[in-house]
Structures are given as structure tokens and as C-alpha cells.
Amino acid sequence: MRLSVPETARAGEYRNRGVVLDIRPVCVAEPSCRLDHSGPLVRVPVEMTEPTGVETVVLLRLANYEVLGRVAPDTRLAPGAPAEFAIDTRKLCLFNPVSEMLIG
Length: 104
Known about the structure:
Helix content is 0%, strand content 38%. By secondary structure, it is mainly β.
């Protein structure tokens, strides 16, 4: 899977090199939250859900990695079933895999 990330001055130095991608839970939400950006929609398996009252935290499988997301408390997702999520690529973080310093 390819995700476009915002270009920063430092990120350009790492083009075509390995980096660590950090997808924070705030970057993953139900498709209706995609109103203000054009990030991708992905259909991925839901591993588990945890209602917290104000939101539901979702553990999903994205390209063989476990990723946390947040959805509205009334969003019903079935563990083990695929569901569609919006990825807000504007808030993704890239890290240098050796120094662990933030790239962008």
C-alpha cells in the first residue's frame, strides 16, 4: 500500500530510503470524517474495538501492521470483518530509523 505524505524540507532527503512511519490514532477514522482532506480510504480487517464513551478505539490491520484508530461511539464495527477507514495523511510522522529523530 502506498500513502502520500506531506513533503517537508527534511523529508526530501529520505526519498527512496527506509523510514519509520507513525500513524497516530487521530489519523484513522470512519470515512465520514474525511470532509476536509483528500486522504485515502482503505478497507482493512478490524481486530478489536474498545468503546470508551466519547469514542470507540479500533485496532485494525493495515499492511500486516496493527494500527489504532478512533471512530464515533455509535459506529458499529464487527471484529474479524473488514471495514472502511479514512487515513488523514496530513498528520503522519516520519522518523529516521537509525537516530529515531523526527524527519517530518
